[in-house]
Amino acid sequence: MRLLATLVLLLLLRSAEPRRGPRSGAVEGGAGGRVRGRGRAGVMRRQTPECKEYVEAGDKYLDCQDRQLTTVMQDWPKDIHHLLLARNKIQVLRDNMFSQFTQLKSLDLQQNHISMVEDGAFTGLSKLRTLLLQHNRLKTATEEVLLPLTRLTYLRLYDNPWSCRCSLDSLVRTLQVPSNRNLGNYGKCAEPQTLSGLKLRKLNVDLLCADDSQVDRWPGGGDRGQPKPPPIKVKTEATSMCHTYMFPKPLLDCSNKDLNNIPSELPSDIVKMDLSKNTIKHLRPKQFLLSKDLKLLNLSSNSLHHLDTAAFAGLLYLRELDLSNNSLPYFEYGVLEDLYFLRKLSLENNPWVCDYNIHYLIYWLKHHPGVFYTGLFCSEPQEFRGWRVEDYVKTYNGECPIDKQTGGIGTGQEGQGGAENDAQEGAGETDEMQGDHLPQPLQQIKSKRFEIIRLS
């Protein structure tokens, strides 16, 4: 029996050895798994690259846009002045979430999934001046959120589904303080239906804490002078249609938004404006009049076929204008007269018609030699297709003898585009010329005979 027990024990021990082997291997595999896990983590880090840190005009920027982030990382530098977190997946702003960034001047949180902001989310940001929360999912917030931001001067809240009920009362009252003129300018109510589309800054705050059913029953929106909006979709403004980026330069991005007109209520502090890849056909007078700081305007890849004379009125400081890939045949006289400091003009891929109407554009470019322009080639008529417009204009004027171009009159503008064009018009009116090629009016003066009648 003792021998049998010994044999059974040996068999059991031998059968247990393969199991110990895999378990030992499992430990090794586990270690390998952890190594592989670290490798996978490394892959995730490569898919979510590190934020870009840079310095501009003495301020430190941390660009963490498009990083799929859901929160703020604790290992980020604490001395940054501008934190860019647009287009991530942050859903909730927790208390003290940014408290370590005590030097922050601006915080860009637009285009996230933010649906809640805790009252202490911005604690410690006493130097913050710009806060961008547009294009999120916020329905409500309180005045407490803004209390730590003692220097806040610029707040964007639009394109959030604000629920204009009693819980929003303190925030709306804060926004409506006259000194807070740049806080929440374009934010609008999404509900209740009777207040939908009304701006937070212009809303009658007495309606916020009224019973919702009572508000809905008020004819015309109530007896307090608050009009009830019609049950139709409210037309959105530029700030609701487009995306606004404040850093490094204020940019209004309205590209590829299926726009057929210039949006209304363009912000006045925008430096760059991108309206490309839309279906805008016509620029009307003074549509950019309030955009006095605009330096770059991109209108490429639209359907533009006509620019009114005052289309660019007010754009005194515009440096770059892109009109490429449109349907422009020529410029109306005076269209470019407001662009005193233009330096770059992109004109390629337009059907430029080489006739008398194109002369204004060449005349303007001739008198603004500091403007670099591209893409000015004749599309019509057939005989000039592919010509440089400048060459066409030279040929057009070259058909006239020099005497006819100057008209033989000392205007002091010989050689200028306007004098050449005027001379050509005069030549067009000439029916018959003498051998000396003088214009007809001068011929008449030269050939006219005077009869002297002596009175007795």
Automatic annotation (TrEMBL):
SUPFAM superfamilies: L domain-like
Pfam families cross-referenced by the UniProt entry: LRR_8 (PF13855)
Gly residues composition-biased segments: 407-418
Protein name in the entry: LRRCT domain-containing protein
Residue ranges occupied by any LRRCT domain in the UniProt entry: 160-210, 350-401
Positions of region (Disordered): 20-43, 404-445
SMART domains the record matches: LRR_TYP, LRRCT
Organism encoding this protein: Zoarces viviparus (Viviparous eelpout)
Entry keyword set: Leucine-rich repeat, Repeat, Signal
